[in-house]
Amino acid sequence: MVLFLVGITSCSSNTKSASTEEAHEEHGPEGTVALNDLQMKTLGLKLIQLEKRNMNQEIQVNGKLELPPQERADISPLIGGIIKNIYVIEGDKVKKGQVLAIMQHPDYIQLQQDYVSALEDYNFLKEEYNRNKKLHNENVTSTTQMQKITSNYNKSKTNVQSLEIKLKMLGFNPEKIKNGHIYPYVNIVSPLNGAVSLIETNVGAFAAPMSKLFEVVNNNKLHAGFLVYEKDINKIKVGQRIYFHTSSVESHEFEAEIHNISPVFEENPKALHVHADIVNKTDELIPGMYINGRILADDSEVTVVPNDAIVADGDKYYIFVKAKTPEHKHEHSAEEDNHEEKTTFIMVEVIKGVTNGGHTAIRLLNKLPDDIQIAGSGAYFLIAEMRKEETAHEH
Predict the structure, then answer these.
(1) Is residue 244 a contact partner of residue 224, using CB atoms and an 8 Å limit?
(2) Architecture in CATH of 70-217
(3) Count of CB atoms within 10 A of residue 280's CB?
(4) Could you tell me if 76 and 132 are in contact, meaning their C-beta atoms sit under 8 angstroms apart?
(5) Which regions of the chain carry the CATH code 2.40.30.170?
(6) Selection from 376, 321, 344 nearest residue 35 by Cα
(7) Cis omega before residue 269 (within 30°)?
(8) Who contacts 188 (Cβ-Cβ below 8 Å, separation ≥6)?
(9) Residue closest to 242 by CA, chosen among 53, 54, 55, 59
(10) Cross-strand partners of 199
């Protein structure tokens, strides 16, 4: 089609018949359309030149809203017990260390009694160890006897230390237990600030060791996670902007900024996991929501046309270029002067790129002259008019 730029009104071959020449004069060559001044004015169609602009390349991505693992907590008991009280419901805001529920069980009492008993044995063996060590240094006690006493002392010391660790893990204070205080309950507490997102127990239920009772999440740390496919990974980098939306908040577009890119591929599908901090978070965003977004890649200078200057025809895209008037056509016959002057456009295939700010980036399949003019709008009308003329010509 670019060949028509030389001048679609140039002389035909001598072998063409007069009737063929008349048809081409009336309808124009294939792939062209001619408009008179009134049609141009009615459509508001203006001639413009191809323009170069810096445009962000957009990468379409899908993903979901995520929380870092350290901002989501499954809360389970270390040892089994009966749920005595629950102090929260799903959705409650909680602080780190806040009691969510309490449990009771005879084993808790027994553990504290074992600690007190082990502490008494330890104190006795400690005194015996210190006394025999002095005697051994004076060669009063045999080495064999001293080794046995040392072994018993060390075992007792280790036993006390291990029981203290267990008590602290349950939230008990060993110093208070030493002074006669006994804890009747175990507190189930939140390990972080956030909100209760799940409760999987009730009062009177037996909570088995390591069974999940509560889930607490900190939605303040919510971020957007996207999958970027292999063909686009060389276009993304930390700091780029992402605009996304969710089906539950259709009227609002959220903004995020890439802060981390995974160094390894996800296997199914094969893509890189990209994490982005959300700039304009709202309470409507919930972990697990599916999202659709577009990453704004680096600026690059490209040839652009207004969105209305490009049209799809099948799986291809076209613009309409004004045909140049042949330089040799200077004289007009009386018959030609009676004809209404028209502007002829040639349909030229292009490769469509990103659309942004009312303009679409294009890539030309063949170089066009720098001073070439195109139809700045109405491409859909032009292709429809061209098809109508071609159909009329066939009949």
Answers:
(1) yes
(2) Beta Barrel (2.40)
(3) 10
(4) no
(5) 59-67+222-299
(6) 344
(7) yes
(8) 75, 77, 99, 100, 101, 102, 103, 213, 214
(9) 59
(10) 214
Distance from chain centroid for Cα 51 = 33
Calpha distance 91→200 (Å, rounded): 14
For the range 171-177, what are the long-range contacts, defined as Cβ-Cβ under 8 Å and sequence gap of 24 or more? 172/112, 174/115, 177/112, 177/115, 177/116
Q: Which of 10, 182, 173, 196 is nearest to 100 (CA)?
A: 196
Query: Which architecture characterizes domain 59-67+222-299 according to CATH?
Result: Beta Barrel (2.40)
Residue 112: other Cβ atoms inside 10 A: 21
User: Is residue 163 a contact partner of residue 156, using CB atoms and an 8 Å limit?
Assistant: no
Length of the chain, in residues: 395
Record the tokens describing residue 285, joined without a space.
Answer: 């965003």
The Cα–Cα gap between 391 and 389 comes to 5
- Provide the token pair at 204: 């009177």
Q: What does the pLDDT read at residue 391?
A: 67
CA–CA–CA angle 145, 150, 156 (5° rounding): 130
CB 222 within 8 A of CB 67: yes
Q: Where in the chain is the domain with CATH 2.40.50.100?
A: 70-217
Which H or E element spans position 256?
Answer: strand 249-267
Note whether 57 and 304 are within 8 A (CB). Answer: no
The span from the CA of 380 to the CA of 305, in Å, is 14
Paired tokens of 97: 């260390």
Averages of pLDDT over runs of 10 residues in the chain (395 residues) are: 37 34 43 86 88 80 93 94 97 96 96 95 91 80 86 94 95 94 95 95 96 95 93 89 87 90 85 93 89 82 88 90 67 52 89 82 87 88 80 61
DSSP state of 15: T
- 């504290």: which residue's tokens? 112
